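Case study 2.
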Amino acid sequence: MAFKTILVQLDHEARSNARLGVALQLTRAFDAHLIGLHVDQYPITQMLALEGMDMAATQALLDEGERQAALAGQLFERAVPNAGWSKYEWRAVTGMVEQQLTAHARYADLLVLGQPDPHNHDYPRLTRDYPATLSLHVARPVLVVPYAGTFETVGQQIMVAWNGSRESTRAVTDALPLLQRASNVTITTVDDESRAVEDRIYGSDLGLYLARHGVRAEVAQLHGGPGSTGDRLLSRAAELDVDLIVMGSYGHWRMRELALGGVTRTLSRNMTIPVLFSH
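Prediction:
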């Protein structure tokens, strides 16, 4: 199994370049076809909000959307050939971002998105958690690149956040191509110590499963301590100096976690290294 089609979303933000760099890394590693996608949502959301505006204002919004799409396209069409890659295509569409990404991602093996910058108030009305929540719908792994930082490698040092859930299992399976190429893999088990001993989650069985796929992994227990589980996972990732976290998204009752937060939300908002979410 390998990633043969990788889809990266690009927009007018300056961080699109870093996101594209991560996508190119993986494209070269897997000899994949790279698709760049820009979704122009701005005119739609603004016209819905300003239903009675005149033709000149409407045209200005349309022109701005086309300008942003052109800038993203120029970045893609310049960077990919300069990186020596020939298997690629550019797509620019208009619509709601989540709907368009879901539709296009169905025909890709991996979706690369950027973490929304909370300081950018011009970005068209996306929630801060949309990359992680998108994993609920696309049926594909979603790799989210932080809005700050540089990432010379992605997938060489991997931490798997494992709690034995269906979502964690899906994430590990989806990440197998990356795990098989990694130099080091650490399985960090996340368990509720109040459970009965027979119900505890251990990483040794997952380690054996991965070994049969050619992946050598170490196992470490995430013990209780100050801070939330998500914060402790991020601290452990920093201690291990990993360049990718693999985890299942929204493993608890979905509406409760979406409303009140949880491990997925913590990592989605506070990540400092790329995270691969899968549901």
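The chain has two domains: 5-145, 157-278.
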